[in-house]
Design goal:
Radius of gyration: 37 Å
Largest sheet: none
Number of strands: 0
Distance between the termini: 97 Å
Helix content: over 70%
Shape: flat
Number of helices: 4
Amino acid sequence: MSDSERPPPPRGLLARSLKLLGHLTHPETRTGKVFTRAEQGLTRALSRVAESPAYLRASGTVMRQGLNARIRRNSFVEGALRTLRLPTTSEVENLRDQLRRVNDQVEALGSQLEVVVDLLHKQEAASDTAKKPGDAP
């Protein structure tokens, strides 16, 4: 059986769905024209709403209340953890930062010690070569 005689491979559900979606939203089909008009209308309406002072005030209020609630909840949880004599999240983060700084300092100290050791080895090698030609100390 040659390639031209074979039936096309079966398309999966996703491929068929995407093809149907493309057909429905294509600008030359009736559904595509309706979709385009609806999308443009919704875009205009949502841009007006997004620029509305009342909407901005309301969304700001909702966000502020949500953030305040989160702050109160975190404060309550940290208070409960302190009451139970357990470390709080902020204390653990502070300790993590301190540990990271100590680790950085230890790495810097290790690098400095390596430089010092290299300099000492060079100095010993130079003094050994200087002592050999003169034989006795």
